[in-house]
Amino acid sequence: MNHLIVLGALLAFFVAAFVVAQLLKNNGLVDIAWGLGFLLSAGVSFALGAPRGPVPIVMTALVAVWGLRLAWHVARRNLGKPEDFRYAHMRETWNPKTFLLRMFVQIYVLQLVLNYLIALPTVVTNLAAPTGWTAWATAGVAVWAAGFFFESVGDAQLARFKADPTHRGQLLTTGLWRYTRHPNYFGEAAQWWGLFLLALRGWGTVWLVLSPLAITLFLLYVSGVPMLEKKYAGRADWEEYRRRTPKFFPWLPRK
């Protein structure tokens, strides 16, 4: 029953986000809702949960830090600007008669389902009977911290690079971007691998690996990496950058 309450709260949230986005004619708002959805499911499940142990408290706090930072970063980047090129392209190419329904199902409902699936380590941990701190929990916090570093620092480096007008039309290939073409997406995936480790309480919770697998595969093959790689494909500077720089997992650049 508690899981249904969490899912219902997420459904109401994404429906509201869809309505507001259509009124503003800017579906880029769903990218802001993405991070806030995790914060909502963490908060609702924490409020519904059993007596608080250390793991639910730490996990909910980490999700809150991640979700708020991501939502703030995306909001600063998108609000007051034209609709993101991905959603603008959908608006231009999709059938106008079915646009609203397709947008709701293909973007908002999909993100709702993914949001809930990826949030399962947090939801399950918050709703379960409390347990003590484990070595897995310590490892999870360490992995989450590394992922948060890559995502937040990578985003900050990119924002600073784009703010300099002398860099217009250029690619960022320094800092963390020297070791992976997508440090922010790698960091986002790594944080959920950390939260999965934090949620581990024996073999009965191994199935929660679906969460980090889902976000990793989604970023690598559906939204995120492939869309940006397609955007820059064919540019000489991009092809050279792609040749020498690892796609996702950080490593030393090739010579």
Description:
- 71% of the residues lie in helices and 0% in strands.
- It has helices spanning 2-24, 29-48, 54-78, 85-93, 99-118, 120-127, 135-163, 183-199, 210-221, 225-232, 236-244.
- By secondary structure, it is mainly alpha-helical.
- It is globular and about 55 Å long.
- The mean pLDDT is 93.
- Helix 2 (29-48) runs parallel beside helix 6.
- The protein has 2 domains: 1-131, no CATH class; 134-255.
What overall form do the CA principal axes indicate? globular
What structural class results from the helix and strand content? mainly alpha
Helix content: over 70%
Oligomer: single chain
Describe the main β-sheet briefly: none
Total DSSP E strands: 0
Q: Could you spell the SSE succession in H and E letters?
A: HHHHHHHHHHH
How would you state the average pLDDT, rounded?
A: 93
Low-confidence stretches: none
What's the number of structural domains?
Answer: 2
Share of residues in strands: under 5%
Give the number of helices.
11
